[in-house]
Design brief:
mainly beta, 36% strand, 907 residues, 6 domains, 10 helices, nine-stranded antiparallel sheet
């Protein structure tokens, strides 16, 4: 846990001594999913219905084995009659008499009728994601036991609530899913605290304290040092010119303690955490925080865990924020409802911009219900400095009658947006193509900030396409960034299906991380693309250019560590470099003091660390070229001469106990074996997206080698192959070829190999994750070993990295079977290794479809990009488009060239 979080928890404890006799918060439930308290419970329908038992509170009852699982698109997702009946007994000490006792519910899905000792506490509360309270002082039996009864309807009697909350593209749960507690207040107390603290040190607070003589506010910094005091009645104003502004890079927090005085005595004390910061929406310009124009590197986040649904703990929230920060994001959108208070606490402390959202998903609350819930949202969330936007619903779920109420309830007057609409000068339209230039989007006049883009279904989107989008966003003065969809796969534990994990097929498989935060390849691509320190290596040696994409931080606050690695026996070397003085949004250089023999190493890496000791990214670059590595790893000499035999259009070759058969008609390898047995690599090389017209093959000896090669013919056989067999049994393939189309995704060769025989692969190149043409970032160059798996991204068992797919910058690879193996080396730079074909995924629009060539193992100079749920691959930007190749002249000088060495010795 960071020092900042430790300070935060200490600050929460500081007021205890002063407040213990003035205010008490007594939990009737647990504080979250990790310390829930059992209450009596009966569910009316579905699993385990019709009997009294117990259930942990807080919780979602489906995850405890009750009711029915519903995804929001299900026909009965807002029509069921499912209800939960809760009972809980609690004591009310006699000393509480004469005080104000409120019962507070952090969140109940969805309608809640509350009774205390058989009497209604108030009107039925409708709306799942909002904290609400009742004054139950008159209903309690002081000095004795009290009975709390809560009847919860999973689906609301108010159809507008169902339309806003229950028919969305997410799982629908029921239950008391957030904590329940009692607020014990003195009869004369402070309530409804509203703070507006600006970046220039201006501080204003309004609160409700009828009958008070005065209110005194004391402001403390993060280590408890008093900054000053203010006094007034129900409105206080002052200035703290030395205050440090809050921003997500340096989230400086303060604490204000309010004392209510009457006749010279303190009647009540409350405290709030806050930050000094200013948010401005400058029309046709941008979003400014503390006078700095900012861009959102954001993600949409649901409150979710597979075992507990929407019921989370404080540690869950911290974990989520840490992961989001680790991807170098600076913003998070609450989709599509307000979060737990501890999530906002973590955003305040660790530093994230937040877009907080009133629920609505194609449908919206009626005006009366919406106004009430909006007031509850504001009372709960408005003092958090991390919140810089309010969102009124989502994707058409906007009640425009509520827009003015955001300003009425918010003393900070933060901007309001309508996700999926142009509203208030901010175009938030979702899932627009890279080249979309209609109206107010890329070529318009308004601020552009898509609240959802690059919908990450399975392995598409997220990191795939992000580099193109982000470079355009970064350089466009009207872009305010955007928010990816979404953070984590929503796979729920199905108590009715042997505790299996269910994403409702493709609908919940949208995350950058898995349901238990397993990291996909896009996680690392985003981390590199959104790093605030962009690094470019200049030629050889230790010279780099740095671009500072922080908004507030000078790079002299960062740390730079370098290392050299050799795969040929040199001892590793490492060191640090002094951080250069580069201001935000400026460029500069970095020079590493590498040893004089640095060029004898294979890899140079540069780790960039921020001022909180968080790794921003570790960049790696190869020093040695593929041909250099290949030459030191292969063996060409052998003791015996090469044996050759021709039969039935096949050329049978034996060299050093390795047996090879070539088809003299097409130049392909047909049979391979060594002393350990057969190697089932066959039916290749077959050109992908090229003419397989190797012809007029001949063979001859050159010194101690045997050469088998095709004959060039400008019209009929312009693709050529040349095999060289060395006495060691090493086989060299030299290929010259033209892709058959000017624009194509694929160029290279394929072989067949039985997938069931593959056990693992060890290779030198980028890893350990697979890549796509439009997702090359996020990898490390080195030597990797991967055990075979059949993992599909976003599906059980979420084992990453995936084995199948494209792997970049291949130098060599060893393919392991039971009892045998073979190795392939290359002289060719920028080569891709393709390992088998993941299960085919598609959608009704055929956007996502990952494309793979024929065969099983491929060596390629061009690979496919990938689409998203809502966009075809070629509409995610230039990297998503096909390659362009020369093919008109069909001259050998213009051909693509590939050199591979095959070691079939099994040694």
């Amino acid at each position: 846990m960071s020092n900042r979080l430790n300070i935060w928890f200490l600050l929460l404890l500081l007021p205890c001594v002063a407040l213990c006799q003035q205010k008490e918060k007594r939990y009737l439930s647990g504080t979250g999913s990790d310390d829930a308290v059992n209450w009596e419970f009966r569910c009316t329908d579905g699993m385990n219905a019709g009997k009294w038992t117990t259930i942990p509170v807080p919780s979602c009852w489906e995850l405890q084995g009750f009711g029915k699982y519903n995804y929001g698109f299900a026909k009965d997702s807002a029509r069921g009659k499912e209800k939960g009946l809760y009972r809980h007994r609690f004591a009310a000490p006699a000393a509480w008499k004469g005080k104000v006792i409120n019962i507070v519910f952090g969140g109940v899905m969805t309608d809640a009728e509350v009774k205390v000792n058989g009497k209604l506490a108030g009107a039925v509360h409708q709306g799942a994601f909002y904290a609400f309270r009742y004054d139950i002082s008159r209903l309690l039996r002081y000095g004795g036991d009290n009975l709390l009864e809560v009847t919860v309807a999973k689906h609301s009697a108010n159809e507008s609530v169902n339309a806003a909350e229950r028919r969305g593209d997410f799982w629908i749960f029921g239950g008391i899913f957030r904590p329940v507690w009692l607020e014990v207040l003195p009869a004369q107390h402070i309530s409804d605290v509203r703070i507006n603290a600006l970046a220039d040190g201006t501080f204003e607070a309004s609160l409700t304290a009828p009958g008070a003589d005065s209110i005194v506010a004391a402001v403390y910094d993060a280590v408890g040092t008093l900054q000053g005091r203010l006094s007034g009645q129900q409105h206080l104003k002052g200035n703290f010119p030395s205050a440090q502004p809050w921003n997500p890079e340096t989230p400086v927090l303060y604490k204000v303690v309010f004392d209510r005085y009457k006749n010279g005595k303190i009647q009540h004390t409350v405290y709030e955490r806050f930050g000094f910061r200013t948010v401005q929406l400058r029309q046709r310009d941008g979003i400014y925080v503390n006078g700095v124009k900012v861009k959102m590197k954001g993600v949409n986040r649901h409150s979710f865990r597979p075992e507990t649904g929407r019921t989370l703990s404080r540690l869950n929230s911290i974990e989520d924020v840490q992961l989001i920060k680790d991807m170098n994001m600076n913003a998070v959108r609450m989709s599509h409802y307000p979060p737990d208070d501890h999530f906002l606490d973590a955003c305040d402390s660790l530093g994230l911009f937040v877009m907080d959202e009133l629920a609505g998903w194609h449908g919206n609350y009626d005006s009366i219900t919406g106004a009430k819930l909006l007031q509850e949202l504001m009372a709960h969330d408005r003092n958090h400095p991390s919140i810089i936007f309010w969102a009124n619903g989502n994707e058409g779920g906007h009640n425009i009658a509520l827009d003015s109420l955001f300003g009425a309830f918010d003393p900070q007057q933060r901007p309001v947006v309508h996700p999926w609409e142009l509203y208030n000068g901010v175009e938030t339209q979702h899932y627009r193509e890279y080249q979309y230039g209609i109206g107010n989007y890329n070529q318009g006049n308004e601020i552009v900030m898509p609240t959802e883009f690059l919908h990450g279904q399975f392995d598409g989107g997220h990191g795939a396409g992000l580099q193109d989008y982000w470079e355009m966003m970064w350089r466009d003065p009207l872009s305010a960034g955007g928010f990816l969809w979404d953070f984590a796969d929503q796979a729920v534990v199905r108590k009715d299906k042997n505790d299996s994990l269910d994403t409702d097929k493709h609908r919940g498989a949208d995350g950058i991380v898995g349901p238990h935060h397993e990291k996909e390849g896009s996680y690392f691509a985003i981390k590199e693309i959104w790093s605030p320190v962009q690094v470019t290596r200049l030629g050889g040696g230790g010279s780099f250019t740095l671009e500072n994409r922080y908004h507030y931080t000078n790079l002299k606050a960062c740390k730079f560590r370098w290392s050299l690695k050799s795969f040929a026996g040199l001892a590793p070397a490492s060191g640090t470099a002094p951080a250069p003085d580069i201001k935000p949004l400026q460029n500069g250089s970095l020079q590493l003091d590498l040893p004089g023999n640095w060029y004898h190493y294979d890899v140079v890496s540069l780790q960039v660390i921020d001022h909180t000791d968080r790794e921003l990214f570790t960049h790696t670059w190869p020093i040695s070229r593929p041909a250099e590595v290949t030459q030191r790893m292969i063996t060409t000499a052998g003791a015996k001469s090469i044996e050759v035999k021709e039969a039935d259009s096949l050329l049978h070759v034996t060299a050093n106990n390795i047996r090879l058969s070539f088809h003299l008609g097409n130049g392909g390898l047909t049979n391979i074996s060594n002393e350990r047995g057969p190697i089932p690599l066959s039916n290749g090389p077959l050109l992908q997206d090229g003419e397989n017209h190797f012809s007029k093959l001949t063979y001859h000896r050159e010194d101690s080698t045997l050469v088998v090669e095709s004959t060039f013919d400008r019209a009929k056989a312009y693709n050529t192959i040349r095999w060289t067999i060395y006495p060691s049994g090493l086989l060299k393939m030299e290929l010259r070829y033209f892709p058959e189309a000017y624009f194509t995704f694929f160029s290279g060769i394929n072989f067949h190999f039985p997938e069931k025989m593959m056990r693992s692969v060890k290779y030198m190149g980028d890893g350990p994750y697979r890549v796509w043409k439009n997702r090359m970032k996020g990898q490390q160059f080195g030597v990797w070993e991967k055990t075979y798996n059949n993992t599909e991204t976003g599906e059980y068992p979420w084992v990453y990295p995936e084995f199948k797919g494209y792997h970049a910058h291949l130098y060599w690879a060893q393919f392991n079977m039971d009892g045998n193996h073979f190795r392939v080396f290359t002289d060719t730079e920028n080569l891709f290794l393709r390992l088998f074909t993941p299960a085919w995924k598609t959608d009704q629009w055929h956007n996502y479809e990952p494309l793979f060539p024929a065969g099983d193992i491929s060596f390629l100079q061009g690979i496919s990009s990938i689409g998203t749920k809502t966009q075809r691959n070629e509409t995610t930007g230039p990297m998503g488009q096909r390659y362009g190749f020369y093919d008109y002249e069909k001259e050998p000088a213009r051909a693509l060239k590939m050199i591979l060495y095959f070691d079939f010795s099994g040694k």
